[in-house]
# Entry
Amino acid sequence: MSEQEKFLRDLINRLAKLNCVFDTNVDFSKLSPFRIGGGSACVVVRIRSLKELQILNSIIGEEFYILGRGSNTFFRGESIQAPIIKLVGEFDKIEKISATKFRLYAGAHFDQVCRALSKDGYSGLEFGVGIPGTVGGAIKMNAGAHGSEIANIITEVCILYEGKLEIIKPDFGYRFSSIPSKAVILWGDIHISQAKTDMIMSLIRRNLDYRKATQPLEYPSLGSVFKNPESKSAGEILEHLGFKGLSIGGCKFSEKHANWIINYSKKGTYKDVEELLYLAIQRVKESFLIDLELEWVVLGSQF
Ligand SMILES: Cc1cc2nc3c(=O)[nH]c(=O)nc-3n(C[C@H](O)[C@H](O)[C@H](O)COP(=O)(O)OP(=O)(O)OC[C@H]3O[C@@H](n4cnc5c(N)ncnc54)[C@H](O)[C@@H]3O)c2cc1C
# Structure
């Protein structure tokens, strides 16, 4: 038995003794809305409270991967050995702090949080309706759309890092936050304003209509594939090079939006996606001398 196998067996025994909720050998297709198969994660633990998280942290240190809803994570390789943890239970809530300040816990569904606060007459989260991740994923990735992003409303973030709880004010950039890769985001405070609900709802409807018209939402995907290179659109470049509709195995670049890979067959594997990615990166480099950068996080062997 290898060291890694021993570590996993020991971890599973300890998780069972601690009454933790976990699954073993979870197929990739169950971990993200992309529903891409071809491999599996050895252990996925659903952490229900800060106490559980701290216990796990004391057992395995930071040798785990924190996953939200997996809507920006590309799973790759036959097997992911590092334990994957998801925040549920007490991490799935919103708290009101003052008239215009809310605490969003990391496991809450970002789209639902944005809808709920918007319906209650709070403005500032209209952009987030339709983003299918968690609050934790949205903060980490600085999720944004329609000219706005979460960085505009976040005031403070609480993380568990190197075994300690810290309140930080991260720096944000284009789909980037300065939050350390091994930190677990527990919550983020936001400051939003009050406005007329009909104005908020009409902006949301406009944003959703735009998404429907321009994005292939009817198919499993991870949203946009590549970041826009400086002052250029990755979608326009890929469209120009004829990528729209290009398929390999069960996946293809969408006909609606060239910067989206869709698992149109719902049977695609990570290998199909890898080949599409390699092809795009190579052709764009050859034709435009541009190094495309993935918007996705890659989990498994590095791309
Ligand atoms: C149909 C569709 C539309 C989309 N539209 C948009 C859009 O308009 N704008 C946009 O920005 N994105 C968009 N996305 C991408 C994605 O939904 C966002 O990036 C989202 O914020 C990711 O959240 P998640 O919980 O799914 O993150 P995951 O994919 O689970 O994780 C992403 C990263 O965040 C980290 N992370 C997650 N939770 C935590 C935590 N609690 N603590 C520390 N790190 C954490 C993970 O480790 C990983 O590095 C879209 C995706 C899809 C499928």
